[in-house]
Amino acid sequence: MGRHRAELLKTRRGVALWPIVAVAVVAVLGLGWFTWDYVSGIVDERAASSSEGCPEGEATLRVAVAPSIAEPVQQAATAWAAQRPVIRNHCVLVEVQAMDSAMTLQNLSQGWDQAKVGPPPSAWLPESTLWVNQLKAANAALLGSTPTSVATSPVLLAVPEQAGAAMLSGSSFRWSDLPDLAAAGDGWSRFQKPEWGALTLTIPDPARNPASALAIQSALAGSSPRGRGPVTTEMLSDDRIKDVMNRLATANIAKPASTTLEALVELGKVEDLAKAPFEAVPVVEADLYRRNVGKDGAASPVRVLSGVQVGGPTPTADYPFVALAGELTDDVQVRAAQRFSDFLKEPDQQRLLAQQSGVRVGSTQERPNPAPGIRWAATPEALEPADADSTQQISAAWASSGAGAQAVTVLVDVSRSMTQDGGDGQTRMSWLKKALRGQVERSVGGLFGLWEFSRSLDGTKPYKQLTPTKPVSQQRTALVDAINGLKPTSATQTYTSVLAVYRSAMENYEQGRTNRIVVVTDGSNDGGISLQQLQTELGKLRNDDKPLPISFIAFGSDVDRAPLNQIARAHGGTVSVAANGRALDPALSQLLAGNR
Predict the structure, then answer these.
(1) What is the spatial distance between Cα 253 and Cα 261, in angstroms, rounded to a whole number?
(2) The pTM is what?
């Protein structure tokens, strides 16, 4: 026995045990230290909050929230405040401000009007990432974090109850069927109601109504060779996809409602479908629930509307929470936004969101009750949404489609500074050409004109018209040739050139269309008339019967945006910031989308 034991010990001596033990001890100590550090951090924060107060004082996290979920978010904020959260020695308070997402976007991107809407937020919770994409296109520097979804809600087709009963008992249809259904003179025959005649849609501006934008995405995705999303930039240049978009836009009523809510209110008044101006509008399910129970701030509903789940990839609003950045937002607020976003995703808060707002969350199947007109049907096939750039391009393409497609005149800077690096080893001019070509290639219809400006481009004139503002279909090749021929020259005489383009656009105004001017510049005015002279002359030319907004894209970091803001605000336009070449196409797409 002793000999065997000695041999066993002798064999084991080949591997020293002390290094293994040392590593294990270090690992345990390290784990213990990290655990202690994490726990002590929580304890210290709670101790600071409960006994010593807040050494650095209080910090306020203001959150602008879509009205559809503002009430439960406010309750969640109260619950979070009761925990006395402390971040970097600041006691954090949460203020929830219910604000229409379009208004929030406008104030964030064009300068927060504190006198009208109160203090600016440091976080935002809109209905859809589509709003965040627009803010990114306007000025990506305003985003302080990656948006994360706290709830979802599918897009339905809202119709009067009798129409809903017919649709639900008749043949199924997909979003991609809508162009044909709406174009047919007897669209209701598909649902055994020929006496109702045509099935008429209203699709409010997708740039301002997420339900419209998402429904359009699903119709395009379902019409693609893959039959599903996401919709891509390449798809938008496909003639088949452009045809689907144009037919869907043409089927839209001549003067669609400005907002989905406005359309829902009007739809609720319909008595006779055969005489109704329209019978259907895309809507986010949670918004339809609020309309039917009178919780959306509008007049009480006259009649309940039915929500019909359409086949194919289901478009979905995703309620993203995102921290904001800027001069008035600091690190404490960004961290607080992340913490509060995480809190909203906890089971109790998720249940609150679902029960009160009718949004969908993964942790519970609870729904508001009663919920007239809502079936809460399962969504087996979710639409994969388009990326941030493509969403802007879709809206721009939509604005160029249909009978009322807009008339756009684009004025571009060809000064010497456009030879500077625009990112990824390409000049600013290269990026500009790429963005312009993309717009022309994806344009479904509408009118598009191109001017350039610098100095002495046409004799002594610092500007030159390259193509008139005419239908793209008549001059697509000429537009591409003009874009390819752009060459940087000398200085930047912006004001003189803007005045010339404005005068020309007024003289050639297209009645019955949205007319707009978009200016892309990478520098400040250098010579020519002054800002005051420009404003005076524009004032003389202005005609309220011919609205003509002037919008700018400040390309790069060398642009003085203050005078551009003055011009834009005085004439109903906006100023977007494209920090580099990659940001130029979405910024241009967003401005070309505009409001129809």
Answers:
(1) 16
(2) 0.89
